[in-house]
Specification:
The complex is a heterodimer. Chain A is mainly alpha-helical. Chain A has helices spanning 5-8, 20-46, 68-87, 94-114, 125-128, 138-157, 176-193, 201-209, 243-247, 253-261, 267-270, 275-279, 294-299, 339-351, 360-378, 392-395, 405-419, 426-434, 460-464, 466-476; strands at residues 50-52, 117-118, 135-136, 224-227, 249-251, 333-337. Chain A has a single domain (20-236, 331-488), classed as Serine Threonine Protein Phosphatase 5, Tetratricopeptide repeat (Alpha Horseshoe), CATH 1.25.40. In chain A, helix 6 packs antiparallel against helix 7 (176-193) and helix 14 (339-351) runs antiparallel to helix 15. The radius of gyration of chain A is 23 Å and the shape is globular. Chain A starts with a helix and ends in a 13-residue tail after the last helix. Among the domains of chain B are: 7-79, Carboxypeptidase-like, regulatory domain (Immunoglobulin-like, Sandwich), CATH 2.60.40.1120; 89-232, TonB-dependent receptor, plug domain (Ferric Hydroxamate Uptake Protein, Chain A, domain 1), CATH 2.170.130.10. Chain B is built from 8 helices and 65 strands. Chain B starts with 6 loop residues before the first strand and ends with a strand. Chains A and B meet through helix 1, helix 2, helix 3, strand 2 and helix 9 of A and strand 35, strand 39, strand 40 and helix 8 of B.
């Protein structure tokens, strides 16, 4: 009488298989949330958009292991692979193209954060029985990423699939062009990223040569960003934070100094006047230096009242100031890549003579202008923040596209750094390549005055995939925060 | 002349040990069929045929007594407990009663009386210190929470799989724990299955320690069995009433020791001023105790009065809705020395039981009602439990009998405390983040004035909840209905062959209700979450028994049986993560879409088993058992059949041999009894249902986009059953006319092919994979020593000592895997090949070494070896985790003393646990927050580092640029030091403690009023006892009772203290009588 044992042991609570659309939305949401949380926890700190006044370890470069990217990339890659496995060799299926774009973006995140990573053998536990994937070099990961993005663009060009589960661009057939623009814009981002090691001229030019074949972002409406919803649980990830936890993070003095010097109205988006300056009737944004010890950080400028909190737009439910409209959990967005970044990439490439279309100044100005436009579209009008710069903004010496080529590149880097606000770890990744704008380790840093340039591998890899990790470490250098990976060498 | 006269003899039979009447004693005229039994008062009346008749008085467990009537009309008899014969009968597997002398394995039994008098709400806590080889760790949550019991150590690297099986009247019950966290809620310990058993209905609790004892129970018995036999109405003729009433009071056994010198602040040496509790004043957003010294000064505080234009208004500092322009009047800056002590209550537990008992020739019954009414030491935590039980048996014919036991349990708690680390836990607040200047009791006012139900009132609005709000408003309610019952039919074909058919159920229906008020840190709009857990375990079995004396030397008994076990559980959850209106805890009041989750799980095991026992001349006994199980959990679902190898049937045997040597050969006079025993057994085990499923799990949709994701662990379609093999040898020796008894057992077991979820590198796409792996060896010994040093007239002194030691070692994990992280919280509990089970790993202090020049901190001179290495004044953490110790004790001992003098009984029990380590999170974060008394180090006189005693220079060395070492001379502020001490919650070494303890576990003083003093009163057998449990604790662990554990998603984590609620000491009295 064990006849019905098969039935008893069949799990009817959940499906054993699902269609790609049901997987797609989960991957996008998880990865974008991870992107936002990484920006908040580390990215904004290390590039000195924000600084910490309590629990200051991150700001003092006492990082330990940072596993969030690792866990999120590989954990979600399982479902990316499920999409790809379900589509198979159908090169007219848009899910394949979209999955390849996500895959490329995710692996690029992982390799930028850690260097050499499992790539070709990764996520093959179920299908191929690979339990100890070997680590690939960053160079070969990037070769794969760029090839996949190119393939994705081609697949999507031939596809007429009406996509659902596409919470990034809205799905249907109308979103396919947007995914293609993202694919090609990402190609330009990653070509720029490897440009210290590889001559990327030809590849960049090939993309830009045929806009109908290789469309790229054409305006902020093309931005690859997740628009959060008003209803829980798909709200802005910080919306549910405790006020104390939110207030540990403040505007960095680096950001406030630089933007104040430029009279940049975006500073009012990124921060809010310190409470003591408001009380004194002279509202002003006052940043706190990065990398202070516990006591000096908390007591800087007379304590928490004397340093600016992070902008209303990004606030938690109970983080609004008296008299201020309540935060809108659907206002802030989770950015994968935006139009402004693309413009700055093109400006740099043009300035360096790697591409021949357009002018560097044109791209540069569009980059700045589009970023103002972007924040204008994001920040609720009820906050009463004017994001439109004075006309003189563009003509002031620190902004005007003048000077030596090196100076121009410095201006591009500065504006790119501003436009990267809250975009995961991208600003840090890009800074590693250019060294611009300057990042000075804080006075109480615990890393011998060096800005970290990578994350260490998760400690669990030592026991779970030890030999392969060991091989990568031997190839790449000591597994610490200060070993430069291939792209940043 | 002798053969003709008939005469009537009457009398009373009493027992020697308690001087009480013995009911049910058989009185037989020797050589005839003429006989009777004593009634409930021990009285008998028999008509004998001759005055030379000899009466035989016999009763189980007592020496039979023969009395020549010799013309007497009245003959009172005292029966003596039979120690020589060792007619101790214990209940063994399948509910079969066996004479201890026949057993080839260790079984230890607790009598119901001892469980009832000095009681525990969770009955399994009673085993602590009383049964050799049993480790009990109590709940970190107080009132009736879970207890983790392990017998003879741990066999499985799955922490959940090391608990014994609980069996009531021969039928297994569910002992599952359903975790209480999720949806933003912290852990709540809602109790494990066994915690619902009503002590008043328990006749005996037997512990079957090894697989040989337990083999017949199958899969789940590999970790031993706790066998509970319920009380029946047997033994009392007529109708009787038994009443037991118990009242105890509980206080915290050990409170953390806090510093009382400095108040709220962050170590800047400045003043304090409350403005908005969120950084608007002077350090009023800081939740740390590194503030100004208490020197009689005054500051505006959260509980200070407010004035407007010089007039006092009914608003306090913390009322942020106070009229604009109001001013907080400074009040004295004082430590709230007894804040926690005053916050905690005296718990009270009232247990009243009344049982109606009836018995006649045809049958018996016992109907019992128990009321448990408990309030915990944490305010507004309680437990109310009603248990109605009926036990009845009836002889339908001479050969056909029916028996039933049914118990209905209704258990309700308005609130069980949240535990672990986080805002919902009160100990998280008290031990870590509640500056000593905060007057706790003023937060009994829960709400800001005029914003009742909407905005909480408190000392901090940045991170923390008002602790009174936490316990009074943010409740975790529970309502459990449970029915445990069985029906047994037995037919005796002949006096040597019988068939028993039995069916039993354990059905539970539990409802949990989480309420969170508006303005709670985690739930600004409140929360209402409802969880329903339905569990059922049904067992139906038959047992054919044969028992026959083959000839005068041989007796053979044999059984053959079969069992079908059906388990099912249904979990339903609905969560309203935000509410529309405060105070309405109903799913319809949800502000956002409800989040639901649901699962139904089923499992079935069919079994056939048999046993045979042969005894030779009543001194040599051989016992053989065999069992085969078929498990649905190891059965491949139809769709997967083709992809794996099914192995869902497993067979396992046992053999036990026992020899009463003292009856076989003549031994020296000093040895009164000697028995040797040996056994071998195997037990197979299956796995959880749905292990073969590679599921895609739903998650909350994004708008209208539904979301699924594949589960992160890989199924394995070729799983085999686990198998555990055990050997055991033992001896039972009695000396000096039974005045000294010694029982010794050595055992060894190996568990193979464990079904584990072995961790995988995340880069494979999966976190783990099911696998048959590992071999774990357990070995150890148990001894029990019973001594009666004094026995003079009415005075008797008994000493019982039990001592046990166990070691468990990991022999093998699987190819390529040498360590397996079983659990992780502060430290990680890892199984490593060739290491001991229960080892904990964590980051240590880096130290100077001279073993390898290629490793850091190498000192060729060897002078500094072992010194802690510092950098910037901070201890340097090691790169890799190191062994921090093992949470298992080196040995356990229980020492009991019992004194009897006439009707007075006095006893006490010491419970000793030696060795083992515990990780204390209270120490980690309590230092960080400047709360615990250790944080006075480095601030002897405030924060001015130029003054002596201020700041800390860690004891150790620094490595110079040339590689040499010199003394660390960097001084850190106290605040920096106490965080550096753990490397910012990274270094575990400094917070590992020796978990050894001695507890005065139990004290009882009882007096039985002799019935003769009661005259005609209907009350009989009145016993009054003073009882106390956990009266005293000796331990080296600061702040907390080392006998605790952490609790994580339904898994109990031993060796880790994570903000547990203080354990309690209880004292009270027990009164029992009969009508």
């Amino acid at each position: 009488c064990t006849n019905d044992f098969e039935e008893v042991n069949t799990n009817n609570n959940v499906p054993n298989d699902v269609t790609p659309d049901l997987l797609l939305a989960g991957v996008i949401r998880n990865m974008v949330n991870s992107q936002v949380n990484d920006a908040w926890g580390i990215g904004n700190i290390v590039v000195q958009h924000h600084a910490k006044i309590q629990f200051v370890n991150e700001d003092r470069y006492l990082w330990g292991q940072q596993n969030s990217i690792w866990d999120n990339v590989y954990g979600n890659m399982r479902n990316v692979k499920n999409i790809l496995d379900r589509v198979g060799t159908d090169d007219a299926n848009a899910y394949k193209g979209i999955a390849l774009i996500l895959k490329s973006w995710m692996f690029a995140l992982a390799t930028d954060a850690y260097g050499d990573i499992p790539y070709t053998e990764a996520t093959k536990g179920k299908t191929d029985g690979v339990y100890l994937p070997k680590y690939d070099t960053q160079e070969s990961v990037y070769a794969g990423v760029l090839a996949d993005l190119k393939a994705a663009n081609d697949i999507l060009a031939n596809s007429s699939t009406a996509v659902s589960g596409d919470i990034l661009f809205g799905g249907g057939t109308g979103s396919l062009i947007k995914w293609r623009k993202l694919a090609n814009s990402l190609r330009l981002r990653y070509l720029m990223r490897i440009s210290k090691q590889k001559d990327v001229k030809a590849d960049m030019q090939a993309i830009l040569a045929d806009p109908s074949k290789n469309p790229v972002f054409e305006g902020i409406q093309d931005n690859a960003e997740l628009k959060y919803l008003a209803a829980a649980p798909n709200q802005w990830t910080l919306y549910g934070a405790r006020v104390g936890s939110f207030d540990e993070f403040r505007v960095s003095k680096t950001l406030s100094d630089r933007l104040t010097a430029l009279k940049d109205p975006r500073l009012m988006v990124f921060g809010r006047p310190s409470q003591s300056s408001v009380t004194a009737g002279k509202p002003v944004i006052e940043g706190v230096p990065n990398g202070l010890g516990d006591v000096p950080a908390l007591n800087y400028n007379g304590g928490p009242q004397g340093v600016s909190r992070v902008g209303y737009t990004f606030a938690c439910l109970v983080c609004n100031d008296p008299g201020q409209a309540p935060p809108d959990p659907a206002a802030p967005r989770g950015i994968i890549m935006n139009y402004s970044e693309l413009q700055f990439i093109l400006a740099e490439a043009r300035e360096k003579g790697w591409i021949t279309t357009g002018t560097a100044e044109g791209y540069y100005t569009k980059g700045i202008q589009s970023n103002f436009d972007y924040w204008k579209s994001v920040v609720p009008s009820s906050y009463g923040i004017n994001v439109t710069p004075d006309a003189s903004y563009f003509t002031q010496p620190a902004v005007a596209y003048t000077g030596t080529s090196a100076e121009k590149l410095g201006k591009i880097a500065l504006q790119k750094w501003i436009a990267y606000y809250f975009n995961g770890l991208e600003a840090w990744f890009d800074w590693r390549r250019t060294g611009m704008p300057e990042i000075k380790p804080g006075p109480d840093n615990l890393n011998q005055n060096r800005v970290p340039v990578r994350f260490i591998y998760p400690l669990s890899e030592q026991s779970l995939n030890g030999a392969n990790r060991e091989e990568a470490v031997k190839r790449q250098g000591t597994d610490d925060l200060n070993t430069r990976t291939w792209v940043a060498k | 002349h002798a053969g003709v006269a008939q005469s009537v003899v009457t009398g009373q039979v009493t027992s020697d040990d308690d001087k009480l009447p013995l009911a049910g004693v058989s009185v037989i005229e020797k050589g005839t069929n003429n006989g009777t039994v004593t009634d409930s008062n021990g009285k008998y009346q028999i008509t004998v045929k001759s005055s030379s008749a000899v009466l035989t008085f016999s009763f189980l467990g007592y020496v039979s007594h023969e009395l020549t009537v010799g013309g007497r009309a009245v003959a009172d008899v005292t029966l003596y407990a039979d120690q020589k014969q060792l007619q101790e009968v214990v209940v063994t597997a399948l509910g079969i009663k066996k004479d201890v002398r026949k057993l080839g394995y260790a079984v230890q039994e607790l009598k119901g009386e001892s469980i009832v008098t000095a009681r525990e709400t969770n009955i399994v806590n009673q085993l602590a210190g009383k049964v050799a080889g049993v480790t009990v760790v109590g709940s970190p949550s107080g009132i009736g929470g879970s207890a983790r019991v392990t017998i003879r150590g741990e066999r499985s690297v799955d922490l959940n799989k090391n608990q014994p099986l609980y069996v009531i009247d021969g039928v297994p019950i569910s002992n599952s724990i359903t975790g209480g966290s999720g949806q933003g809620n912290l852990e709540v310990d809602f109790g494990n299955g066994a915690s619902f058993i009503n002590p008043d209905d328990v006749e005996t609790m037997s512990v079957l320690k090894g697989p040989a004892a337990a083999a017949l129970y199958g899969s789940r018995a590999a970790n031993g069995v706790i066998l509970i036999t319920t009380k029946s109405g047997k033994g009392n003729k007529g109708i009787g009433v038994e009443v037991n009433s118990n009242t105890t009071f509980e206080r915290a056994l050990k409170l953390p020791e806090y510093q009382n010198k400095y108040g709220q602040g962050n170590g800047n040496g400045g003043d304090f001023a409350f403005v908005n509790g969120a950084g608007g004043g002077l350090t009023d957003g800081t939740d740390e105790g590194w503030g100004p010294e208490f020197k009689g000064q005054s500051y505006p505080q959260y509980n200070s009065p407010r004035t407007l234009n010089g007039q006092v208004i009914p608003f306090l500092g913390g009322d942020l809705n106070a009229p604009a322009g109001s001013v907080i009047t400074p009040t004295p800056w004082l430590p709230d020395v007894d804040g926690l002590k005053n916050f905690l209550r005296t718990g009270r537990t009232l247990t009243n039981n009344i049982a109606l008992i009836g018995n006649n020739d045809q049958g018996s019954f016992r109907l019992s009602y128990t009321n448990l009414d408990q309030t915990g030491i944490v305010p507004n935590t309680d437990l109310k439990r009603h248990t109605v039980s009926l036990s009845a048996g009836y002889n339908l014919t001479k050969k056909f009998s029916a028996k039933t036991f049914v118990s209905y349990i209704k258990s309700a708690s308005g609130n069980r405390p949240s535990i672990s680390y986080g805002t919902e836990s009160i100990m998280y607040l008290f031990n870590c983040w509640l500056p000593r200047s905060v007057k706790v009791s003023d937060m009994e006012r829960l709400w800001m004035n005029g914003l009742e139900g909407r905005r909480q009132f408190g000392w901090n609005y940045n991170y923390h909840d008002n602790p009174y709000l936490t316990v009074y408003e943010n409740t975790n309610g529970q309502d459990v209905n449970r029915i445990i019952g069985n029906v047994i039919l037995k037919y005796d074909f002949t006096d040597w062959l019988s068939l028993q058919v039995r069916t039993a159920t354990d059905w539970g229906n539990e409802r949990r209700e989480y309420r969170r008020a508006f303005s709670t840190q985690r739930f600004p709009f409140g929360q209402y979450r409802e969880v329903k857990v339905n569990t059922e375990e049904r067992n139906t079995d038959f047992l054919l028994s044969f028992n026959k004396d083959i000839n005068k030397d041989f007796n053979v008994s044999a059984t053959f049986g079969g069992n079908q076990n059906r388990q099912s559980s249904i979990y339903d959850e609905e969560n309203a993560g935000q509410l529309n209106l405060p105070g309405i805890y109903n799913l319809t009041n949800s502000r956002i879409a409800l989040v639901a989750s649901q699962s139904k799980v089923g499992k079935r095991i069919n079994s056939l088993y048999g046993s045979a026992s042969v005894s030779f001349r009543n001194y040599l006994f051989l016992d053989i058992t065999a069992r085969n199980d078929w498990s649905s959990a190891l059965t491949l679902p139809t769709a997967l059949k083709a992809f794996g190898t099914e192995n869902n049937s497993y067979f396992y045997p046992s053999v036990a041999l026992s020899a009463v040597v003292s009856d076989m050969v003549k031994l020296p006079e000093v040895i009164s009894f000697a028995k040797a025993r040996a056994s071998f057994a195997q037990v197979g085990n299956d796995t959880d249902p749905f292990t073969f499923t590679q599921a895609f799990n739903p998650s909350t949709p994004f708008g209208s986009s539904q979301i699924y994701g594949e589960t992160d662990r890989l199924a394995n379609l070729n799983l085999k059953p686990e198998i555990s093999t055990a050997y055991e040898i033992g001896a039972d020796l009695r000396f000096f006319k039974n005045r000294v008894g010694l029982d010794f057992t050595y055992y060894q077991s190996k568990t193979k092919n464990q079904i584990l979820q072995i961790p995988l590198s995340q880069t494979t796409g999966y976190n783990g994979r099911f696998f048959n792996a590992g071999e774990i060896k357990n070995w150890g010994f148990e001894t029990m020593l019973n001594v009666t040093p004094v026995e003079i007239n009415d005075f008797k002194w008994n000493i019982g000592i039990n001592f046990s030691a166990n070691r468990s070692k990991v022999l093998e994990l699987s190819d390529g895997i040498t360590n397996f992280v079983m659990a992780s919280k502060g430290v990680s509990i890892e199984a490593r090949v060739n290491e001991r089970m229960g080892d904990m790993y964590g980051i240590a202090f880096a130290r100077v070494q001279n073993t390898s020049a290629s490793l850091p901190y190498y000192d060729a001179t060897g002078q500094n070896v072992g010194q802690i290495v510092y950098k910037d004044g901070r201890p340097v953490p090691t790169t890799n985790v190191q062994k921090m110790g093992n949470y298992n004790p080196d040995w356990l001992a229980g020492i009991s003393n019992q004194f009897n003098y006439k009707n007075v009984k006095f006893s006490f029990l010491f419970d000793v646990r030696h060795g083992g380590k515990i990780f204390s999170e209270t120490q980690v974060v309590g230092r960080e927050g400047g709360i615990i008394k250790e944080t006075l180090e480095g601030r002897a006189d405030g924060y001015d580092l130029s003054k002596p005693g201020n700041g800390v220079i860690g004891d150790g060395v620094v490595q110079n640029a040339d590689g040499s070492f010199s003394k660390n001379d960097v001084k850190l502020t106290a605040r920096a030091w106490h965080t550096a001490f753990t490397g910012g919650r990274n270094i575990a070494e400094g917070v590992m403690y020796d978990a050894s303890f001695v507890k005065l576990r139990e004290v009882q003083l009882g007096y039985s009023i002799p019935n003769r003093l009661l005259g005609n009163s209907p009350l009989k057998n009145i016993t009054v006892s003073f009882v106390a449990r956990n009266l005293a604790l000796w331990s080296k662990v600061p702040h907390v009772d080392p006998e605790t554990m952490a609790y994580n998603g339904g898994t109990a984590l031993p060796g880790i203290e994570y903000m547990s609620i203080p354990s309690s000491r209880s004292y009270g009295f027990n009164v029992s009588f009969k009508l």
